[in-house]
Amino acid sequence: MALILVLVLAGSALAQGTKTYAVFPFKVNGPDKFLYLGPAVQSMLSSRLTTPGKFEPVSKDAQAALGVTPPTSGSQAQSLLTRVSADYLFWGSVSVLGDQATLELQRQDMHGQGKSVSKTMPLDGLVPGLDELAKQQVAELFGAQSTPVQQQAAASRADAPSNPSFLMAEGVNPNDPMTAVNPQFRYEGGAETPGQWRSQNLGFPSRGMAVADGDGDGRQEVFILGQHGLYAYTYKDGRLTPLDEMRFSQKHELLFLGAADVDGDGAQDLVVGAYRDEQPYSMIFSFKGRKFQKLVDGVRLFLSVVATPPTYSPTLIGQKKGMNYLFDSRDVYEYSVNGSKVQEGKRINLPEFANVYNFCFLPDAGGFKIVLLDDSNHLKVYTQNLDIQSSTDESYNSSAIDLSFSSGLPGMTGGSADFITPNYYIPMPMKITAFSAKGKYELLVNKDISVAAQIFGRFRTFTQGELHGLFWDGVGLNLAWKTRRIKGTVVAFQIADPDNNGKQDLCVLVNTYPGSMGLENRKTVFMGYELNTGAIQK
After folding, report:
1. pLDDT, tens only, 383-411
2. Superfamily the domain 19-141 falls into
3. CB-count exposure of residue 379 (10 Å: 0-12, 13-18, 19+)
């Protein structure tokens, strides 16, 4: 009985030590095209305020019970806090005028104490500005977590996840068990490597992956794109449990899988880019009721999903097949879904040689960089004005997914429109992530590792991979950390919570490599690494 009492008291003390908060959707003052900023800023602020065990959001049910209308008085705010037993309430507005945005944030606690703060920034700098506001709020409520000297030192380096399977840029991971034996020894891991997990083998090779809340229940499912099918699973305790599948004819060359809420119902929809009869043939599926349903079919566009500024929310983008080229960088647009059709939105200003599959936006203090994978899979970095700043010597994110064509192609070094080559290889999507709420974003890519690929240009079945976290150091892309070698062909990766335990993992989809003579026996493995940090995926 005494032991039970001690445990109860300890749990009570722990609960009392954790403060909770709720964030209302922000009011938007500006053109209608910016109305999406209301819920987007709400979501981003909530994730950036989170400090596990210290400052956490209220449950989804409690948030829903508050509604979407912020309080208009201090007494009303206190009443709302009492209703959901929360400690703090946040609400505010976003005002957009031209290319400038002003964030106004209000905070009130359960005792009626409140504070307002305002910050003006370029529209493209909205995310870094929100990061700064969130850090200020946490510092005011809980005090500084480090000295100014420590903060300056931390600011000079990129954040990195803590996992024994990751190597820091310096080559030493303090969590590596072999450092206790000798700091020059590197632990390569085994079947029971701490912080690493994997699923059973699936009986087919894969082409893409999206971990997303497809049915809108607040829990994530695992979606895998095969050579001729789309599959849905739940993941728990090392096993993928099938939910549904959608099969396609062999006429479909499946190119891409991404997730975005294209119809605004709160659930993530699945965007499948495909090629059929020498034309783009893209599709969008809903997963409501845990069954695939076609929302849009047979779109004659190359469709993809990219995190776009200023909120870096997943956005549906598309591109027509070019006249003289397979792709034309001038024809990349944002799209929305209207009924069973897609509707063209604003044009995205991109460098020459860009297409819907080979670029991403990397946030930085001054707005963003555009990162492009060229035809040789080297990373090129451009400013917002499309001036090139750097290029890597190494190649990244190569895949074996190819399209045949007989014309010049943006990104190729041939230069003339009548240059003929049989294949263009669709690169794996790059990912943008931050391993804390500091606003330090990294580019997550897979390093190509294959001796045969270095000799034979069309050999794309890589026997190994390494995930690299790269950051912009003002001159070029620099290595912050990397995983140890991954055996097999990496086909996709993502920061997500596949087992829905509230903690983010680095998820990796791998095709096994049984040797060059046994490629027909390739299988799919879903594996990952636990992240001991609050990662944010873009």
Report:
1. 999 999 999 999 999 998 888 765 544 45
2. TolB, N-terminal domain (3.40.50.10070)
3. buried
